[in-house]
Amino acid sequence: MTARFITLEGIEGVGKSTNLEFVRGLINEAGHQVQVTREPGGTAMAERLRDIVLHHDDESVPALAELLIMFAGRCLHLENLIRPVLESGTWVLCDRFTDATYAYQGEGRGQRLERIETLEAWVQDGLQPDLTLLLDADPEVGLARAGARGEKDRFEREQVEFFARVRSAYLERASRYPDRMVVIDAGRSLEEVQSSITIHMQKLL
Ligand code: TMP
Question: Which atom of ligand 1 is nearest to the CA of 40?
Answer without folding.
Answer: 20
